[in-house]
Write a structure and sequence with these properties.
The chain has about 110 residues and is mainly α. It has 4 helices and 3 strands. GO terms for molecular function: DNA binding.
């Protein structure tokens, strides 16, 4: 899944499924910042850098999924190591694309057997 295009369009509407859905936007900006050890400004910067697009609540507030929180933590690690925010976002997108390609490759190999 491309981080920049992550959405909840395919999520099941069953109430219990939201607990297992990594793409469900369950966390407010304040809670997301607390959980990731970042600041709201850092999360907004990731949104502006197009690493991901935060969903919006009915009131217009940003909401984050567990998947997006994992991306934010990875971005924070790279930035803490001296990588620029823009480069960190590009690295994460490339890592995500590689993971997806490897997953598809494994599925194709399994289907061919």
């Amino acid at each position: 899944m491309d981080p920049a295009s992550s959405d909840t369009g395919g999520a099941s509407t069953q109430p219990g499924s939201k607990f297992d859905d990594d793409d469900y936007p369950a966390y407010t900006m304040g809670r997301a910042a607390e959980m990731t050890g970042t600041t709201p400004a850092f999360l907004r910067a990731l949104d502006e850098a197009k690493l991901f697009t935060a969903q919006r609540s009915a009131g217009g507030h940003r909401r984050y999924s567990r998947y997006q929180l994992r991306l934010a933590v990875r971005a924070r690690e790279l930035v803490d190591q001296g990588t620029s925010l823009e480069a960190a976002c590009r690295i994460i997108i490339l890592e995500d694309q590689l993971e997806e390609a490897l997953r598809i490759n494994a599925q194709l190999r399994a289907a061919a057997e």
